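Record type: ASSEMBLY
Status: queued
Input:
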Amino acid sequence: MARVVVIGAGVAGLVAAIRLADAGARVALLNKGTGGLQLSQGTLDILGYAPERVERPLDALAGFAAANPGHPYANLDAELVGRAADYLCELVGPALLVGDPAVNLQLPTAVGAIRPTALAAPSMTAGACVDGANFVIVGLRQLKDFYPDLVAKNLARTDLPGGGRLSARHVMLDLPARAGEVDSFGLTYARALDDPAYRRRFAQAIKAVVGQGESVGLPAVLGVDDHGAWAELSELIGAPVFEIPLPPPSVPGLRLNRALTARAKASGVRLVPGSKVTGFRSSGGSVDSVQLATAGGDRTFAADAFVLATGGFEAGALSADSYHNLHESVFDLPLRRPEGHLVHGDYWGDPQPLFAVGVETDHTMLARHPGGDPVYDNLYAAGGILAGATRWQEKSGEGIAVASAVLAADSILAAASTATTQGAAS
Amino acid sequence: MKTLSADVVVVGGGSTGAGVVRDVAMRGYSAILVDRADLGQGTTGRYHGLLHSGGRYVISDPHSATECAEENAIVTRIQSDAVERTGGYFVATPVDDPAWGDDWAKGATETKVPFEEVSVADLLKAEPRINPRISRAFKVEDGSVDGWQLVWGAANSAKQYGAQILTYHRVTGITRDGDRVAQVICTDEKTGEEVRITTNFVLNCAAAWGGQIAAMADCPDVQVVPGAGIMIAMNHRITNSVINRLTYPADGDILVPVHTVCVIGTTDQKADDPDQLKIDWDEVQQMMDCGELLIPGFRKARAIHAWAGARPLVKDSRVGSGDTRHMSRGMSIIDHSDRDGLKGLLTIAGGKLTTYRLMAEKVVDAMCAQLDDPRPCRTATEQVPGSESGKNYVITHRLEEREHDRTDDQILCECELMSRGMFTRALQDQPKGSFDDLRRQLRLGMGPCQGGFCTMRATGVALETEHIDIERATGLLRLFLKNRWIGIWPILYGDQVRQTALDNWIFQGTLDVEHLPGPTHEEVV
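Status: finished
Output:
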């Protein structure tokens, strides 16, 4: 039975860990912080812009990879990405992710832009921006990260991706999450809305402002533990309800994080939270173990294979020092560095080369020297650490993450079974 | 077209112009100040924030040293809300000659710059992050000053005396009537309307842009050389006092604590165009090396923003035209009646922010002399609006204010503790203001996250107040992100890369701001 250490508990690390554990591997998941899902929208993006808006992401992948040979999708074909998306849906269930990975939804953002994504929470899909849609966007006076008139007015003046227009108006409600609190976070509302009594009061206030035939757009705070909170609200209000994701911490992202973490535990993954990897040992071209600094002294985790799923610059997994030397934080892996300057001055211009920096892999997700051989024969990389993607611009983050995690896990399992077979043969 | 008239038109809304319009108004003249942009949007807002004790100039420019020492005390009193009395030190780093300190101390005594030599142990007690290999330290009365607060304080004082302040009014021409100035012609940049101001006297305080203004009145060849310097704001107060290197003035020799940050500066490069200042990676590296000398580990601290300012240096035939570091920092008044035969126009250049009030006094004295209308200056004794209490700024001011209103108001910018009320009041005063105009008053987006969380909130609140429509709100959001980036990308390394990745995730990833409906025109002001 293979022993695997997965480093990082974003969507890539969690998916890899679960897949490996379910296949019989002994898996330890080491994570330093909360994981990247709290930054996500709670959606699964595959490809939103290439750079034009993408309607059918799986169909677009082959052409996109051909045009961007250094992109992670060059190792992750459409069949794999579709399968990985389905796998994530299975893991979290239809209460948290729905949709067809082959077709993008076009959902409103908290500034009223229309954002393409492949899979979304069922609590979001009534916000699909299609011709003739009729929205009332409702804000909460005490929640400063959502301005319903900004959303409604921008949506209403947009020519929709599929043609036509929608209509949207806005209402601001004075509806505190906690009595006397004027400055509440999204998570405060989400916790309040887990409580059925608060939910009823909330629904009542909203029902009073909803017109005939309108769908109600709300900030994505409709419960965090109770995945059915939004559906009950919709029933109480008597109109379709949809959530619009907010800047982090993201409540829909947190729901996915909690669901996947629970699933990992159930699969027997050993979770070691709050653990920063401080060193590693290698011999004969393989990584043998990683170390954690803990209060009682160093702890060593030895394994047959390692998955590096620590994220990108936003997670501290990659860094650039004041001389623009680039660094990968756990294994000091060689990074692919674009030619020329790493940053340019045009905010609205081309993607910044710096953010395409990352770890290059072979077609099995083994981390390799840029353009060369694997660095170690058992160190795999998945997710935001991979070179070549500007995930936030392409809207490709989760698609890359889950597909690379599935591929890395399957490569580890295949290598383990080959080793077993060879062992048996000799 | 709109027509106005005033005894005096002041061109330029930096510290010089604001000081001059205040002085003119307090002497009883009707006055209008015009600036092509916001107050303090040029050099005044793009410097390191040092209110000089005079110590910097005791050897190189003794006269300036004495003026600085005197004006430091006056500005600290009359504009108390803009000044933090941080105190400062001159320190000999391991590469500086400690014996030079004796010359410096002699100079300081002669120029009446207050100082006291302190032990390195006492220095390290006060500023524990400083290089322990420092060999000598002198304590001085440096302070830090918010240039925008200073300018607005003077402008508001002028308004109380009846002056008009017209921001975003670009001067396009100055007409003459024989040998006298007749009219200043402006364009209102927000509306496109032409504004003609009939006047007797024009005080050209456009500093680095002064040559361009003088040329409009057919007074050619006024040579104001922009001496460009870069500054970098470091996250947090690395020190709480101003740290100066005990050397002859050089690049990268000052670290100034201003509000929530510390600013290192500066360089000095001749620039051709004050509107096109670059921040070279080499200059950033130079500042980092200088910082490392003062504060070991400086390179690992987080740089959050960089900017460049253009000193308005008057060309001096004694110094090579490329050597802006050693051109005079002193003030020059060019009287165009002698030089070009045009009465009613003075061009002012040079000088420094610390002595802005004194410069204004001399300029207005020169105007009164030309008009043969002597009137006494009163600016040194009267406090500006907002400074009546005489209480100086302290770093914890906003924290104290938020402690009082946190149960009644939201905090839109956590980095700078800016409340919703502060934002809506500033917007009420400047309904046509861009977010950068409001930033200069409120420090919106100036903290570690550089607008990551407050920009969307500012947009939403501005739209809610109904001062602006959706198209402008969206345009201002786009403009603010673009403008913040100008100061981020030149210093993008270390932890600010991580912050930028998070900010990009928010704006591009979550909000998809790039795909908001396109503007019919891009907001520029």
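Annotation: The longest strand of chain A covers residues 286-294.
Annotation: Chain A touches chain B through 57 residues (CB under 8 Å).
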